[in-house]
Predict the 3D structure of the following.
Amino acid sequence: MDSLFLLIPLSIAVIGLVAVLFLWAVRSGQFDDLEGPAHDILANDHSDKNTSEKTPREHKP
Amino acid sequence: MCCSGCEAVAQAIINNGLADFYHKRTAYSPNVNLVPDELEHLDHYDNTSSENTVEHDLILEGISCSACIWLLEHRLRQLTGVVSFKVNYATRRAHIKSHPKQVQLQQIVEAVQSIGYNAYPYDPTKQYSQLQQERKTYLGRLGIAVFCGMQVMMITLGIYIAEIGEIKPFLLKFLIWASAFLTTPVVLYSAQPFFKSALRDIRNHSLGMDVPVALGIGLAFIASIYNSIRGAGDTYYESVCMFVIFLLFARYVEFLTRWYALSASESITQNTPTIAKKLNSQGGFTVVNAQSLQIGDEIQINPGAIIPADSIIKTGESCIDESILTGEKEPIKKNKGDKLLGGSHNLDNNLIAIVSCVSEDSTLSTISRLITQAQAEKPAWVTLADRYASWFVLFIIILTSSSAVYGWWVGDPNWFSIALSVLVVTCPCALSLATPTAYTATMSTLFSEGIIITNGRALETLGSTDHVVFDKTGTLTEGRMVVKTCRILSSAHNETFVFDIAASLEILSDHPIAQAFRSTEVSTPMKTSDVTHKPGLGICGKVDGVQYYLGSNKLIESILKQPVDDTEVSNTHVYLANENMLIAVFEIDDTIRTGVKSTLSWLKQHGKKVSLLSGDQKTAVDWFAKKVGINDYSAEASPAEKLLFIEQLQHHGNTVAMVGDGINDAPVLAKADVSIAVSTASQLARASSDILLLKHDMSSLKQVFILSKKTKHIILQNMSWALIYNLGALPLALLGHVQPWQAALGMSISSLIVVLNSFRIRFRSQSTV
């Protein structure tokens, strides 16, 4: 039973860590869009900021 | 391809190397308007002098699946000057960063529209970011409550199942203090909204549901701390945590539903005419805010633009569509000196006009004001419910404190524990969940069916609604007549010739059927003379010297003195005959909205009175009312008369639901007990309605009625259960047979029963609707 004296404070510390992480995740917008990322992975070409500044490919025949 | 628009879109998609879209899409997008109406007004969002990137937010319309987002993101990133473009799937909003020197917002919106979606710039500093913030806070609070609550529950479970004396006193004390430590953030952080709202209630001298909730949480926590310090008596940490978790979860779900409903209707309220082109002294014009216009200012109005203010035409002539304000669907030709109504639509030509009326007095704001007025007079359901609740809460508090005082007076050692049990047992938690959870379940069910409830109480009111009032054009009909088929019965005539005769005659008629012929082009102009109207029958006259009759079978029978076959009654038939014989039969599709007839007969079967209120001509309304089977109707009603009609119904004790679409319906919608706007409704009408039917099918209305009835049943069940539980447990608690933790458990279980019962709405509706 004495192990509880170590384990419970330990679990409280873990909970504290989890809580801080969770709050950070919520505040930094990790939960803002729960659907989009699941679909993102299906898009094969990952065009990001670098490719977006290329010249536009307007009206190729 | 369904239309040329789609073809253009498909071409644009392929030309831009985005043909992948067709492999990725999992749903088809609804049709969207390709005309870039508001485009020319977007300049004011741009600040071209800026060197740095600027950020904009867009509301996107027409997104139906992830392929749409993929397409949008890739198309937009192709534009020079766009740094990033990110679409939020859940909220259908895009955040864009761009170099204003290279690309302007107008081009961005054009790019979005070129692939078939609609985009409106909006200011996210308003409601949206507030709601997003609120959601994050809710989520944070809920998360913390769950993390800590579960730990407390785990520790307490050990204490529960252990035999008395099995846990050493020192360990027990340690466990209790660990629980106390874990409960503190739950009470101080997670339960904050309850305390805040209770405090607000008390400041406003009203007793809301949150008062006993806050009292329960606060007292139980303080007592637990007290008992922990004392080292004797019970602690209620786990009860506090469970209480907070349950309540927060219910509130969060309710908040989410409200938010989705709100964001769907928000895009509608965005674009009212706010920009005007004002002529300046140099002869050019400057773009100004419409609200800054003064009487006497000269403004230029482009074709397709919304007229920014009430004004008088100085030069030019054009057709004006005032349907949004007056309900009149026909465009009106206006010349120099004629009045223009702010908010109406300029159709053909450029106009220069002088502002005659500004802000407060203008037509648009008059109508808006009517709405606000009517809204202020809305039946005060909310206050009524709150008043009952506050009496109940007062009762609980008196009961709790008197039981505490009594227990203390007679020297009962458990007086605090008993009082706390009474407070927790009687806590109207299940009672307060009874209605909102049922609403939430119904609202989310309806939402997935394309029906948006903007006001939860509307569902309750709808259950007791006994009179449904419809607007005609645009609500029950789609507002256009079409000749569906034409059967030629005489070998001497061909189709073009027959159409020309009919069109030449009907051009002089105001009957709704006449519209159907007017839309067809006359290939050879014909001379008409001696045209006479036969009300309710048809029209006759000479076309190129020959006498023709065009009308119902009754008219033709009376002319030809022989029966005319009219066995097919599903559609309206119009017959064309000359003096001797029948020439042709036209089948007119009156484009009644789908599902109207079944919905109307369903409503009547269920004992609801149905009325038709229309601003249209009497003949048209007569004819239409008969067609759909409405006996009670009134025609040529102005918005004020419509309002009066509703008021009279309400005065006679009827609960009135109004279904409408135009801005002219908006005041009436706001006045009715329940207001329902249809899919094509104007922005103002949608903004002032309780329920939005996004689907084109009128049977959505039936669904709302069915579900509102179900909801009412469920609420009744929930209420009776909560009352039975509360009243049944009360004597037990008063007699001291209920431990506080048992009370909390009972409270939680009874709340859970209520929540699960409410969710039955969702499951049931999926099998029946």
Observations:
- Residues 3 and 57 of chain A are 67 Å apart (CA to CA).
- Confidence is low (pLDDT under 50) at residues 47-61 of chain A.
- The helical segments of chain A are 3-27, 36-40, 49-52.
- The interface with chain B takes residues 1, 4-5, 8-9, 11-12, 15, 18-19, 22-23, 26-27, 29, 31-36, 39, 42-43, 47, 49, 51-60 of chain A (CB under 8 Å).
